[in-house]
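Request: When convenient, would you put together a sequence paired with its structure tokens?
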Amino acid sequence: MLDRLLAAVNRIFEGLIAVLFFAIVIVGGLQVFNRFVLNQSLSWGEEFMVYANVWMIFLAIPVAYNRGSHIGMNLFVKGLTARAQFGLGLAVDLLWLVLATVIVVYTFVVMGVASNQTSPAMGLRIDRVYLSLVVGWSYVALLAVRKIAGAILLRSGQAAGGAAC
């Protein structure tokens, strides 16, 4: 059930990433058209594209983590024993969990300060931009916990199965 829920969240994140990317392309095209054809640029276009890009990046991090798409040293890992691969994988997922937790906690601190600031062109509260870190990294933390628990359960199931033989 949790896997189905996380798969649905992943699809939502992927959809939001696609919408944000499309919006960036459209606003960028409008900005170029307005600047070079109408000789008047959009006052909010660049700011929108920056904030949409920030949201897109922090939504894409957990999607890539869930897929295992982040860069890695597979040649090194494949040379290790199965036990060492398990330990290294567990350590990596624990580091992802620690990183996500630290980022979420300190982003809330920054959001407290940023809630009094607004962006110059759009009048957007800056803490709404930082909210992208909380959303993305909270999902990374959830995925890391699921991966760690799954690895431990799988390992203990293999150990129990091996002991019974």
In short: The chain has five helices and no strands. The radius of gyration is 21 Å. The chain has a mean pLDDT of 92.
